[in-house]
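Weekly modeling sync, notes
Attendees: S.R. (lead), two postdocs, one rotation student

Agenda item 3: backlog of single-chain predictions. S.R. asked that every request posted to the team notebook include the full sequence so nobody has to chase files. The rotation student volunteered to paste the first one in as an example of the format we agreed on. Action items at the bottom.

Example entry:
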Amino acid sequence: MANVDRSDLNLELLGSHSSDPGHLDPTCPTRDVNKGQVLFEIDPRPFKAALDQAKAQLAHAEAQLGKASLDVERDTPLAQKKAIAQAQLDTEIQAKLGGQALVLAAKANIEQAALNVEWTKVTSLISGIAGIAQVQIGNLVSPRSVLTSVSQVDPIKAYFTVNEGEGHAAL
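Predicted structure, as returned to the notebook:
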């Protein structure tokens, strides 16, 4: 048996195969499911908005880096000729390094936001029979929420306890 959960999200449950809030495919949580099949869909709108915001932050960071690069390029010969203070060039170099770091951080934020959008579709980890949903439409699910469970039936494993006397009699 494998629990189907999404440990990386704290989201509002919407339904399976639906973009309309409050609609859950009633046959999905209690039927045969295949590995990778979508069981639940979590409202992707806030995560798409976060992705858009992360993209905008990257554009802003790239613009800042571009300006800092131009400043360094323009002022390097001036500092060499002592036309400007070396401290000014040093500040611009540090601003450029800071801009490079902001671009890297913005790219990482985009990657995380894209993962969050991808994780709004909760899929079955194995093929089997899905149990009854443990949450209702509209519930706020936490990282540890168990949405449903899927029992593997092919191959199926069973464990039996046999006392020592019964075990020898069967052999």
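Discussion: group reviewed the output briefly. Residues 2-44+125-170 form a domain with the OB fold (Dihydrolipoamide Acetyltransferase, E2P) fold (CATH 2.40.50).
Action items: rotation student to repeat for the remaining queue; S.R. to check formatting next week.
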